[in-house]
Amino acid sequence: MATDLIELKNLGKTSVQWLNAVGIRDKETLEQIGSVEAYRKIKTRGFKVSKVLLYALEGALLDAHWNQLAPDLKAKLIKEAESNGQHQPEN
């Protein structure tokens, strides 16, 4: 059964509305798309978002408060989000 987005950590009414606006309506879809792609879709749609939304989406998937994410994970998320969909090879 699909989990309502509003039940996830870090996600409030506005972020859920943004997710719905880009076709993400449950946790399972968010998991399939991933936090970075969901963030990109929302940003591309023209909503004014900050990096905190990206952290919040990842935290929602991990069931953790966004502020508890490790700094290296946050940096990785930002790098992926700013890569314009280009895959960055790992070294």
TrEMBL record:
Pfam assignment, any one: TfoX_C
Lineage: superkingdom: Bacteria
Domain TfoX C-terminal: 2-80
The protein's name in its UniProt record: TfoX/Sxy family protein
